[in-house]
Each structure stands twice: as structure tokens, then as C-alpha cells.
Amino acid sequence: MISDQIKTGKNVFIHPLALVEENVEIGDNTHIGPFCIVRKGARIGSNCKFTAYCEIRENVIIGSGTTFGSRCTISANAKIGENVTIKYGFVLTDTPNLEEGNVKDVGAIGDGTLIGANVTLMPGFNIGANAIIGACSQVRSEVKDGEVWYGNPAKFFKNR
Questions:
Q1: Under DSSP, is residue 100 helix (H, G, I), strand (E, B) or coil?
Q2: What is the pLDDT of residues 81-136, one digit of tens each?
Q3: Which residues fall within 8 angstroms of residue 135, CB to CB, at 6 or more apart?
Q4: Helix, strand or coil, per DSSP, at residue 98
Q5: Less crowded by CB within 10 Å, the N or C end of the chain?
Q6: 65 phi-psi bin (left φ>0, alpha ψ -120 to 50, beta other)
């Protein structure tokens, strides 16, 4: 189901089995695959691709040229940069900050980052620009620009 209250650019493809809620903006040439869910208020740039079974929660911002493998979940209010490649099974988690009511701590991902398959980004941690996160990693620390991390928990390996 696709809301009639969305704004799309040119040549946008939304699979008939996808769900796109109201107040979503989708840039030119973006492809939303089957069984993807895009929640209200999400902003998706141009030339993005979502393979299948991805969930983009409320008010997420995704930069242009970013691609997602299947079964990725992005928590509400997250920010993902431009030209990011995220392989399948990625989860960007959140958790409520009890001292601030129901406000949730969410991480962000910088431009040009590559994230391997089955990676989890824990609440409140950020991944810098042009970083690489190895497959099956759980990120529990800040990852700076250009760093390579892997493992569970993920640890610094080297600079790019």
C-alpha cells in the first residue's frame, strides 16, 4: 500500500508489495523493493536502492546513492549519509533515554561507508564517513572516519 500523501521524484519504483506511509519523500531513480516498509516522515535521497524486507522507521533521513541489501532495519530518527553500502541483515538499533522521557538514542552513519552483512549498530553510537564494518560485527563504540572495524564486539583493525 502506498500513501497518496508522499512526494516522489522522477523514475521512482515502489514495488506493489511495499508499504509507504504518509509524508515520505523519495528522490529521483530510487527503487523500493518488495515487502519493504517506509514509515511516515522518512526522507530518502536520489538513486537509492532497497532490495527486499527493509524497514525504514519514522523520520529517518537517507542520503543519495545509498543501497541496502535485504532485511535491514533502520530505527526512527536515524541519519544515514550519501553513497553508503549496507549489505543484508543490518540493524540500527535504538533505546529510550529514560532521563529524557521517551526520546531514543540512535546512531548515525557517515558518507561513503561500507557495512558488511549481519551487522548491528548499538544505540547512540556513530559510524564515521568512509568507514568499513566487517560482516557479523556488533558496533558498541564510536567509529571514526576512515576506520576499519570488525568482530563481536567490533574492534578497531586499521585505518583505510
A1: helix
A2: 999 999 999 999 887 666 666 667 788 999 999 999 999 999 888 999 999 999 99
A3: 87, 116, 117, 118, 119, 150
A4: helix
A5: N
A6: left
